[in-house]
Amino acid sequence: MPYLDDQTFNFHTRDIATQLTPNATQRTTLIVAGCYVILIAILWHVPVLSWIIYPFKLLTVGFHEMSHAITGILTCATIHSVELDPDEGGETRMSGGIPWITLPAGYLGSSFIGACLIACGFDTNASKVACLVLGVFFLFTLWWARRNWLTWLLILGMSGMIVVFWLVADSVALRYFVLFIGVMSDLYVLWDVIDDTIARKVNSSDASAFARVCGCFPSQAWGLIWLIIAFIFFAAGVLVGLAAFKETSSEQQSEAAHFLPAPGSSGAMASVPLPGVFIMIVTAFSLKLLL
Predict the structure, then answer these.
(1) What value, to the nearest 5°, has the Cα angle with vertex 129 and ends 288 and 156?
(2) b/e map 76-85, b = 16+ CB within 10 Å
(3) Predicted TM-score of the model (pTM)
């Protein structure tokens, strides 16, 4: 059995504490994330103002359905369609697969995506990579939802916003946009789980369907378990962001100028302007589907 003396243990404890102690840039990010939480909570409950975050609610529903579809593919299911509706609902039609994996994947997958986006929101270059990954997911979703006009409008609109924020202030705006999407996604999951499974029982919810398949616990119990996991993902996203991205804002700006820079920036001549490529790929794919 390995032996660790008290001095070694204290060293590792101090090292972990140092890694998780926010620097000035990270404190700003945490403050912005906290403001997002307050802003989203206010907009969510004011009927007129709630339309401001309506597209982001639909995006989170898209993450939910996309998570169902991806786990379906991984468990050998056939995905027939992915649909979003204006009432903030969605449906993934599939045959085959493993229900006890695909059913919880909606809530847990979208909360995991939100946590990843929160972590990436601590760093500009990480936010760029996150947007490229989202772009790939968007293309798959467009293929599965090629007959659903609302999904098309949502994805094309979000793709346009990503490109715009990529171009603003050497992509610093993109970082805060990715952070907002991550916070919005995780908050939506937390609220939806509470509303659909704990506060009231919805027979058509994923938790109710999972309870019928599994049979171990009622839907409220599964909702509580998923809620705890979603909270863990949320906290993990923040902790990973604090531990992994310690660069100051000036260091991030310098690195971002040489990694997928926006057209017109100091580093744009040295590499391909990815926002333009992103637009061309999405446009070409969209035209192919329409034709």
Answers:
(1) 35
(2) ebebebbbbe
(3) 0.85
